[in-house]
Specification:
Layout: E1 3-7, H1 12-23, E2 27-32, H2 35-49, E3 53-57, H3 63-73, E4 82-85, H4 101-128, E5 131-136, H5 146-165, E6 171-176, E7 180-181, H6 184-188, E8 201-202, H7 204-216, E9 221-222, H8 226-237, H9 240-259
Parallel strand pairs: 1-2, 1-4, 2-3, 4-5, 5-6, 6-9, 7-8
GO molecular function: oxidoreductase activity
Keywords: Oxidoreductase
Family: Belongs to the short-chain dehydrogenases/reductases (SDR) family.
Length: about 260
């Protein structure tokens, strides 16, 4: 049986990946910080799908924890066939904030950890000449809305660069670029999303099914739904002053939502 390791695998998009892969018969290695929730998720997935679920309690902002997850990816006796780098959170702090810890944690979890785990998975997969790496990025990387946009722009570019490096090796790399997805992500960030039209919201399970179909086709960039494909294409081709203007408008709406 194949095995997939999913970071942030107990909620949101990560949990949707875990459910979808379990339905496909993958054994799972779930990584998250909340040990009781990890145990419940593992128990539920095993009961429903009959797969083996291993758990690793880890905070990817802590270098020792990150090292343990990387070691698991490179364990030759227990190979991981697919890595899903999903762990993340919304970085709301301004660049001018005196307390820079949220920025530092965001970089550690969503840049440094994604790079290190992708590299560890790729090294192990190269030896077997097969494997899949999925990095959950965001269409936010195409706009200029604070550190989260910068982080996701990095994730997308890093993934594309790794895909170039691994081209023709049998190891496939995909960046998933969702838009607004109905998960705990926004509520945890204090964002109600009330100003976002209903048609812009995506269902996490449908999103993951579409993403895995793109992974199977060997696509490097997976952008869900036609509406988000059109939006992403437009943002890539608009003049940068226009993108910055749009980003200011959206940022103003988001700030008002948080204040409300």
């Amino acid at each position: 049986m194949l095995t997939a390791l999913v970071t942030g695998g107990t909620s949101g998009i990560g949990a949707a990946f875990a459910r979808s892969l379990a339905r496909r018969g993958f054994n799972l290695v779930l990584v998250a910080r909340d040990e009781p929730r990890l145990a419940r998720t593992a128990r539920d997935l095993t009961a429903e799908h009959g797969v083996h679920v291993e758990t690793i309690t880890a905070d990817l902002a802590v270098r020792e924890d990150l090292r343990r997850v990387a070691q698991r990816l490179e364990d030759p006796d227990h190979p991981v066939d697919m890595l899903v780098n999903n762990a993340g959170f919304s970085v709301k702090a301004l660049f001018t904030a005196e307390d820079f810890r949220q920025h530092e944690t965001g970089f550690e979890v969503m840049c440094a950890a994604v790079s290190r785990l992708s590299g560890a998975a790729a090294r192990a997969m190269l030896k077997r000449r097969t494997g899949w790496i999925v990095n959950v990025s965001s269409t936010s990387g195409y706009v200029t809305m604070g550190d989260y946009s910068a982080i996701k722009a990095y994730t997308t570019t890093m993934t594309e660069s790794l895909a170039v490096e691994l081209h023709g090796t049998g190891v496939h790399v995909t960046a998933l670029l969702p838009g607004w997805v109905r998960t705990e992500f926004h509520s945890r960030a204090g964002i109600t999303g009330s100003s976002i039209p209903d048609f812009m919201w995506l269902d996490a399970d449908r999103l993951v099914e579409a993403a895995l179909a793109d992974v199977a086709r060997g696509k490097v960039l997976s952008v869900p739904t036609l509406r988000y494909k059109v939006m992403a294409t437009a943002l890539r081709h608009l003049p940068r002053p226009t993108v910055r203007w749009l980003s200011r408008q959206i940022s103003g709406i988001r700030r008002r939502e948080i204040q409300a």
